[in-house]
Structures
1.
Amino acid sequence: MSRLHVGYVRKAIEDRFTGLIDMTDKARAQESKQQEAFLSRGLAALAVQIEHPCADRVAALSVFDGEDDRGLDSIAVEVRSPQPRICLVQAKWSEQGKGGFGESEVDRMFRGLSMMLDRQYSKFNSRFQSFVPDIERAYESGTPKITLVLALLRTAPLVPGIRDLIEEKRAEFNQVEEMVDYKVLDLRDFHRAILGDAAAPKIDTKVRLDGFIQESTPYKALYGTMTAPDLADLYGEHRRGLFARNIRDNLDLTDVNIKIRNTLLEQPEHFWYFSNGITMLCETIRPIGKSVPGKVGDFQLTGVSVVNGAQTVSAIHRAYTANPDSAQFGRVMVRLISLEDCPPGFGDQVTTTTNTQNPIEERDFKSLDQVQVQLRDDFALMLHLSYVIKRGEALPEQDHGCSMMEAAEALAATSPNAELAAAAKRDQNLAGLWEDDTYQEIFGSSPNAYRVWRSVQLLRAVRARLKELRDGLLWRADAAAFHGDLLVTHIVYRSLNTRSIEDPDFYWPNELKKVPELVRDALAWSLSAIDQEYGKSSHIIAAVRNTERIERVVRAALRGLDSGNDAPPLGDDYQVTEVETRGRQVNAVTTLIATGRIANGAVLEYRPYSKPERRDMAEWLAADATRSLASWSNDNGRYPLQWHADGEWYSPSGLAKEMRKQASGVTSSVQGTLRWFVPGEGSLDDLALAARLDQGLNVEDEPAAD
């Protein structure tokens, strides 16, 4: 049967994506290889549609499989939801329905994820570059939830060794919080997806309700308790098809989902009390045998769909799979609503209304605390400023006040306890700061309004300076400047004169004047400390969110600042300079032509190198694919690149300069050899250096390259 279903998926890919998926890089490949690559890319596009419903053309454009895909084949970025999400797909096509996935694929996939998190965007191919602005927006909207999707045309589960390896690598990214997860889409998932809505409502199943009660007026419904094992089995059998009518599906990496899972594993006996329950719509509900209300009843359901509680069902399945001995004791309240006598559209009303209730958060309770009320009054009476304490209230202009959220973040950053800065970075809603003990440590019993407002001003000044610096930073340094805002604020605060910060007569602007220089030095010392303590392959996010790591980084950075020594210079791979030369730079064009390292006619890709370039050029490059391409010639001297956009010949730097000017009107000297890449091999700069090393030539103190 699997070969038959493979044929269905193949036809769906051909019908949807023929002519839409970019196959130009495979133009010279054998026809069989072209077809295999197309089907693999089509599978990656189909996986994106499953995870993020979109039009065929959008799904096709999500594919960047090919040279320099870094073990990833397609991407979808969602930045409009409260929690930004990034979906990364690696797809494996198999005519036999046995798509393989081994250790090498796992390693490449996670290395690619590391590069993306470290903002090494130029390591990826040109098709990936158009997604960089959305990725950066996702980073800046809060901690993104990242899902690695293994799109495998197979029915067999992953072998235990591979699954264990994935879990091990996943754990490395989740040392501080559950940021990265993975899921496997197999032949069954793709088959359901291509059947579409027609297949969705046809799930028929049997369920058992303990202590069930029946409602008959005006419509038939049942409610009772189901066990975690029964719900886990239900999801295991029908999987995502259970959520066909749910407006959100199961968001596997939401904080709510993680808390549900942890409750079931750690306190299964409390799960019934802590859970809001599950609502299922059914076409019909029929009792099996004798069913007495208040007792145990078995029921046959047709056309069943979970419309509220998808996260609960998914979390139960994951928890039960991970630890059945503990999770088996969990129970949950379930409502079954029959649609057989309901008016048209009633099911949609149930789906919408059960999913649009705003949850109450811990910070909402804190807004009622007398401490916050007093701060609001003190801001108004003593500072003539606004202090907003309730969620949903209009925020004041920056010069006119702040919110309780911003105050909590600023006080966490300026606390003597650096661990509070780490706690604040773990959740975009600052969930860790509202826990009673932490909240008390931050605000105290009678916070001083001057201290609160001045801490907010400091945090704003630090962030403004970091934003300025980021335009000249690359990769890990850029990530450190973004994710390390509270870390840097903490270090800067401890370097200022703050003894009189609560004194109304203290002239705080004198201290704020020191911020720009201190921010630069604090960032440099912090990044140096992270690299030395944990290595250049460590994750910046872990360093700023892990309580132990942030303490070590703070101590090292403060020692550096107090030493009186100049801050350690950022390496050339961490910053962009005006002319962008380096001591070990060679004359790349001359070297590459002399060694014949690049074949005549080879097509090179342009990849933006710095944040300002990405900001200014992304849309311009995406508007015309020829703008990112140039052909190489070993016979044209200093001008080896023929730009596909106009057919003219340029030097690498000259062309990069011309492109920036056309895209944004900015004229600046740039090193083109860092921006032009031979796909799958590296930049011109990389290739020239490797060529000289291969020949045993000196690479020290060479003249700057074009």
2.
Amino acid sequence: MHTRTYGWVQNPSDFSKLKLVVQIFDNTSIHYQNLKSNLVKNYIPFTDIKKNLLSKLNAGIEEFTYSELVGSSKDINGKSVGSTKTDGSKVKRADAVADGLIQVTIQPQSITTKGKYWTDNWTSDGYLRWALSLNFLKHDRNTDTCTITELGNQFSKVVDGSTTEKDILQDALLAYPPATQVLSILDNSVAPITKFFIGNRLGFSGEKGFTSYDESLMLDWFRTGDKNELDKIKSNIEGTSDKYARMICTWLEKVGFIDRHSNNILTVNSGERAGFQTYSITGRGKHALKQAHGSSKNSRIEKYLTWEFLAVEGRNKNYIRSRRAYILKFLQETKSYIKLLEKLKQLGFSDAPQVIENDIAGLNTFGIRIEKIGNTVTLKDRIFDFSIPQLNLTQELKDAALEEKKLKYQQLTKLPIKYIELLEIAYDGRRNRDFEILVADIFKNLYKFHSILLGGGRKPDGLIFTDKFGVIIDTKAYGEGYGKLITQEDEMVRYIEDNQQRDKNRNSITWWEKFNDAIPANSYYFMWVSSNFTGNFQEQLNSTSNRTGVKGAALNVEQLLLGAANAQQGILDISTFPSYMNNKEIIW
């Protein structure tokens, strides 16, 4: 079985290019003929691949494998990007040539400047996912092949730019659950909102692949950011759910369901600058959403999804997909929460009720409306029939200890599940940016500190403070825990000395100016936040303090969550925070 991930799209936004991808599967289309007579012959240099594709095209075949569509990423000599050439240099992405049908279908923007008539396999995969997500194409898990759907045929044959084409696109988006979720979020908002506001309410929050950054934190960062980083903050720093939100908004804007707004923000270092775009629903969008939800079961638009939509990353994704898929199947048969749990257990899903409730909450923010009142659960949407692959669920469940740990801390702390995700993020060095931003978020929104996100060169990751004291924060996502590192100690010492001396000649970035002016000079501290602390880390705390005359602490991710819960419950008064700065790891 070939398990692919689709249902969520980050990059493609051009409906005309999407239509060309769909027309690869329509042998009556002009584009199909162009593939056969021109594109494959002229732009795919590999003889064997070219021969195979032309053989299918000449026979009028309308079914292609994933690899025939998306291709790979290799140079003219067949060497993969990243591998070593005979001259010792590395193969670059720019060296990659075409070897897939979508690659030669999507012409890049650089076609006029660089004369490159094909796109890369990553963009090709994005367009294929998009076509699959909107029900224009369907994927066979057993053969790893794609074919066109009835809706795809209509889209392929409709006149470009016509009212009918727009109607098809509107209907496809209204059947796509994440799109109706975005419309619902906008419909319930009294003012235009950013992708961050939407992303926090979209998808399966609390799991890998659905990270969203706090809107107010990002706005604060933009207002106080350095001149050189403002463009990066605005365009390149976003969680995965924020990316999905941005892209879905782009599609919805193109069909007239939402409006996009530009706005200026007064920044500390650069004056007035164009800020994050915001979105609002149009009258047409409100009307369409009302029609999609319908006043009766028979009038509602059927929501389209497949098993693949229901989780995107992680070692447990197939298990989670199946559990959520069966929840949707069973909710079409019963409204009893008790019966739902029983049916899931009969299939081997022995997860705690809290996990199932998390799934129901996630399915709602995915875009399927489910109402739970007591032990009554009502599925309020009609859903296209979809298949669930037969898997050995016991074998599919991996990282059971991590899932149990997440459940334990969710029950223990009662914190929103997006913060429970830190238990996984903290151990993944590839997600250090996510860790850094969510740590700043938790200090701001749960501990209720003034929390400033910094990051970048020559400054700490963040600051937390009141008008009585301030703390310099350094965050580290480490898989094996954070041990003593002299380079990290030296870095923290520089930050502390920067703050003590406050000399623009020493450091022109002047990040210390973000602290409250009322803080006494002797009321600053330092703190490392990481997954856990190992080896001789205590020596690093002592040495940093001895070198600077400033006290500090270390906080592991579990204690970070417990402290947040204590602050929420009024057990921890953040005014007492300095009493924990004893050059030790904090245990509340």
3.
Amino acid sequence: MAAPLAYGGWQWLAPHRGSGDEDPSTGTTTGKPASDSADQAYLHVIAHADDSIYFMNPDLEQSIRSGALSMTVCMTSGESDGRNAPGRAAQFKATPTDRPAFARARINGLRAANALMATGDDNSPWTVEPVELLPGYRAELHYLQAAPHVQLIYMGLCEARYVSVPRPVSMRGLWLGAIKELPTLPGTGSTVGMPRAYTRDQIIDALVAVIARVNPTVIRTLDPTPMHAPRETVAMMSAPTILRGLSYLDHQDHTSSARFMQAAMERYWGAGKRRAASVSNYIGYPTNYTPPSLDAAATRRNSQLLNAYGWADHRDCGDPSGCGDLKVGPNGLKGGGAGWARGTRTRTPGTSRWVAPLKDGRLAAFAVLNGAVRCWVEQAAGKGTWQGPFDAVGSAGGPLDPQVEVVRHADGTLQLFAARTVLPFNGNKHHKELVCVQQSGIGADGVPTFGAWTSLGAPDTALDKTLETGYPATALAPDGTVHVLVRDWAGDIALRSGRGGRGWGPWRLLDHPAGKQPPHPLVVEGIDALVDPSGRLHVAAPIAKTVLHWVSPAPGELPELTPPTGMTPSGSAVSLVADGKGGVCAVYRQAGTAQVALASPDGSGEQWKTERRAPVGGYGRVAVARLSGKGSPLILAARDDQGRVVASSRASAGPDGWETPGLQFVGIPGIAQDAGGRGVIVVLGTDGLLYASRQTKPGARFGNWAVAAHQSQGSRV
């Protein structure tokens, strides 16, 4: 690792050559990193060579261009049918089956795309050498000579070769115990020599070795708990018992790679103190069931990268096996991959509600690092320095999903909500559940203390169905009732309520559009909830063609679906905020443009009027909060096209209403009001540290970004 670490000061050079049309407006110049590149490292774990390009960009490219170590681990060889030709092309039947050669061509394609992102030259040379992740088990380590912080590891495991057909010789088969060992399939000319076979434990240990090697601050995987298909396949129903299960909309290799990585992270973090790392899980094939989240510039850039990966220019890379994946070729924005290249979505979208004031007025922020909740606090109410992260919240019994939600009760105590995935080890059945924990007091060091985590279960009782439980959205009613809402297995919205955050009632389902059975899935992810001043509970959820809205007829009653809102399709999760007039406002990104839209019901209560902000690019949920006080100013915080946080408030300068961009971050910005009435935005940096920006005075612009003073005493990180 000496070469890439010594290369931390490397800076990206403007592209000078590459595949596709080059356009200076692609919005992919490097953003300001959270800190020096030596203070952060990125680890991407994928199943196939094209996964990171389709599902993790623009985040992948921003990581590569930050100058920090960026490692991508491709778990399978991606050998497929061994024919490097489009399935419907005339030359397909004439192309001989050569799986090692096709695996090598896909490796070359990913190298070309990564080189294009790093240097602008898709033919920029690489160095390849064997690396032992386990004694006697070699993988290929590739690093880019012109930018050696850009690295790839190919484990070379045999792929499933089918999207959903159960096949014993696959990562899924190994995970379920249908086989004891999964062989590798080295690509033509591989430096690793003869094939080997990994047991389930050995794959987990190999990934643990990768985590230790990279020492990442950001970990990115595919979706470990994807959505099921609307009907069971014949192949699944006729499979051997050990391979049976639900059929899913994602590729089985995607899911298995993410689950193996979950197990590796649990094993790695369970061994003791580690550098703080955040995790993001990216939705795969099901992005085809959601409106496009990226704007035209980001989509065009993805097209350029897919052209490099797909060998669209038929460049000569010097390898007779091929220089890219002709099954993708120049068609990255066509066919089944069209939605993948136009959409980037994470499985756990989070909300802005991860920062709140304590009883004494000091703000406290909470985030999931290394699978557990960490806490930061202001040293004094409304003033200056934050400190953290503190290990203020005990273990939830296993790693938590990547985001946490905070509810502040009327007495000033806090309650945290999260989701926990329990892996099928140590006698446990694989399932997901919602969990919560209440504040018990304040420690001698001024850090809040919490009791034991409590399980809220999940809307579904069948354990395999609980894996599709969505990210929880919470809302607090005037009488102290906490409402928790999530997407259930069927794609509906389920509600559970408890007075004071205790004494939870049963799960109840909200209604869905009348008439024929709604399309599957109705809701993918990205709901939000809010209680208005009259005590009525509002719920919003993006679906394929619009945004749905439910509201309680009266306080305490189950929300009912309102008439169609007329809102345009959302390319992001939806955020709800009080409109300052007793109602609500929905904030989201318009599909295909990433433009931020604010929608509120018109006077008739039927259609919603929409106000649009100037485009800033980016993707993901827009954080929003309405502060108390004169004018009830509205604050927005979003990710821009370079992965940086950008704010908008009443006093924002410039004709577009957005302030000067800040630093690159992960997750969703948090927003709160401090003891002095000023808005505060917090983000989790790509270095695992907390950064905060405060309005210079109530209603004014936001000031400079400051990092929390690092405090590791009593913390595992």
4.
Amino acid sequence: MAVTPPAAPSAPAPALAASPARGAVRAAAPAPPPAAAFTAPPPAAVSGPVVSPAGSGDRGGGVVRLAGPVPGALAHRYAALPPPLRVALAALRLEVLLGDPRDAANPYSLPALTSAPAAAGSAACAGSAASAASAGAGEGWDGRAGVLLTAAGLGQVCAADQRVRALRPLLRRDLALGHAAGRWGGPGMPPARRVRGQDGESCPVSSPVPAALLGPAALVAAAGSVLRQAALTVAGRGSGEPALRQWQPVLAAAFADLLACESLTCVALRRPAAPGPGAGPGPGAGLLGAVAGYVVPTVLADVLAQLGLVLAECGHGPASTGGGMLAKLTGDLPLAGVDAAGAAHWQARLARALPALAAEEPRTAHRGPLPAPFRLADPPATAPAGGVAAAGGQEGGHTPDGHESGRLAPDGHTPGGLEPGGYGVGGDSVVLSGLLRAGAARADGADGADTGRAALGALARRLLTEQRALRRPCRTAGADPGAVAARALADRQALLWLAAAVLGVREAADDGRGLFLGGTHWALLALSGIAGRLGVPLPGPAPDPRVPVWAELADRVRRGVDCDVYATRLLW
């Protein structure tokens, strides 16, 4: 069985050779363009991937070149926070199979996808891409997705967060296609069927990505593509058209909001699922999924509205690529369950859980190492016994990059305060609230010369005061979870947990390598936006983080780096 990909770009390049898993479909894939030549210095000197720009005359042509003795050198060049090697290879194969997003003749290109009807995007694209699958692969997009993803090697990637990373080339092109592909369970498996849980939410059976997080993860990636289109326009024409510079702070704030939403989604994806029905550790077991299911669509609705304004003011109407991407994305929101109705469902679930969650609030700041889900540079935590294997097909307790996985401390717990099953001690709400308290505590000990850290700590302390004020009303909110007051409390509490996730991910990334994710600017801008949504006044004068955040965004779009927390290199 062979996969016939879309037509290759006009400039041919050598093929990317990658062997699929045993029994998988071998793809006759087009090669990546010269911009995909990865050049890797020694890993110790790596602060981010270096890719030869298109037309730079790179002697290596379009092949992926590995330098140094480290087997995972390619993964280190793929992103500032590298994934396991087979995850990086699967993502590269998938990007190659999808073809050039700028080629209008390619059925998976942005012009072709945006021209399809919004609500029926996946069916329309599947019909136009009939050559992408052989006969007998199944009807509709689900069957063709299985062939495409098998050829890319996605069946070897079983951890939820790594599956989303490997799927990102598809997720960022089209929300509907990405959401459909996320339901794929693996080679030889039918598309994940949907079942109804006790709370009325549907969840996929056989897919490693939880249903509550599949839509938010796809929405974050798709919104990042729209942000890139807007930023490319403003960064490219800003020098010649000064009027466009007024949108730089708007796009910087949108970038920070996008990183905040992805931080929460990544933490939730990295948290192993419960081993079975009724086996959760307490009321906080499904907290992160519910928070992401509500917060991500709510916050990104504002972001998409701002991006629509920027694109319109820059002359990109619905007929343009950027305007068409935004219109298609907006039309696909109900299909992926990330519209207002989907957010309202998860808001109601949070409202019902507020009394129990308020009862387990900690009184002290989080101390010790950050829990494993916040350390995005580490391998994912092991899955519970009988669950899905973690770390994208680990073998012998190690990831393909040589990282240990599932290592237990002498006391029988995993590093970072997690039980062997992956549950945070005391529940998610305790960990998140403890991180908020820890961030507030650093306001007192911050170095006076480090204004960014001092401002971040002061803002965390202001948000902690808001959280303390919510404890008493949250204890009685469960009497009528459908009431307006209960939903308002759930909204405020979810935003506070979003702020805690930002603080945890930023602190974990602050490891001395100088990564943007470990800096204070994006976190300060994201927390400022959260405070604005809460109506909480900002504390005192603070440095304006929008200028450095915009500089990072403009630099990424010029260098071909994605707008994600991992700083992933784009192939096309």
